[in-house]
Amino acid sequence: MDINLLLAYLGVGIMIALSGIGSAYGVTIAGNAAIGSLKKDDTKFGNFLVLTALPGTQGLYGFAGYFMFQNIFAVLAPNITAIQAMAVLGGGLAMGLVGLFSAIRQGQVCANGIAAIGQGHNVFGNTLILAVFPELYAIVALAGVFLIGSAVA
After folding, report:
1. pTM value?
2. What is the chain written as a DSSP string?
3. CA–CA distance, 97 with 22 (Å, rounded to integer)
4. Reported confidence tier of residue 85, pLDDT bands at 50, 70, 90
5. Rg of the chain over CA atoms, in angstroms?
6. CB-based burial label for 88 (10 Å; 0-12, 13-18, 19+)
7. Which tens digits make up the pLDDT trace of 1-50?
8. Cβ–Cβ under 8 Å, residues 141 and 95
9. Non-local CB neighbours of 20 within 8 Å, separated by 6+ positions
10. Per-residue pLDDT tens for 90-142?
11. CATH architecture of the domain with range 3-152
12. What is the pLDDT of residue 142?
């Protein structure tokens, strides 16, 4: 196998893996808070569910990044250059790391909101707004992957 193609696939694998790991951690952080808060107020399960699911989107962004690079592999795979492979590797690493950390931090924001809702405070909307900020960086990273994929192809 050509080293350039291997590096490009490694970038895609890192992108999907790290984003997915971040989502798994973020959803678990918020889910743990939801379980604790349900003991105090089980009528707010719908709010807890929305806030728990929110960190899962970064894993989807990592997966979407693959589709943005997919045409590169279909067209360039046999003749991919070192620069193109490094661009895919760099884009995948950037998306993966941003997805990892933004999902974990978003899970922590959501967990704090869930705990506050469980204590009787009406902060669902505020928590949703504040939880979107870490998400923004994952979206920016995905846009970067799109731009890298467009430039390389």
Report:
1. 0.92
2. --HHHHHHHHHHHHHHHHHHHHHHHHHHHHHHHHHHHHTT-GGGHHHHHHHHHGGGHHHHHHHHHHHHHHHHHHHHGGG--HHHHHHHHHHHHHHHHHHHHHHHHHHHHHHHHHHHHHTT---HHHHHHHHHHHHHHHHHHHHHHHHHHHHH-
3. 9
4. very high
5. 18
6. buried
7. 589 989 999 999 999 999 999 999 999 999 999 999 999 999 999 999 99
8. yes
9. 59, 62, 63
10. 999 999 999 999 999 999 999 999 999 999 999 999 999 999 999 999 999 99
11. Up-down Bundle (1.20)
12. 96
**Own/partner long-range contacts of 60-64 (Cβ < 8 Å, ≥24 apart):** 60/23, 61/19, 61/95, 61/99, 61/138, 61/139, 61/141, 61/142, 62/15, 62/16, 62/17, 62/18, 62/19, 62/20, 62/95, 62/96, 62/99, 63/16, 63/19, 63/20, 64/142
Residue with tokens 């973020």: 26
Structure tokens of 40? 């105090």
Q: Which pLDDT does position 45 carry in this prediction?
A: 96
Would you list the domain boundaries of the chain? 3-152
Give the Cα separation of 97 and 129 in Å (integer).
23
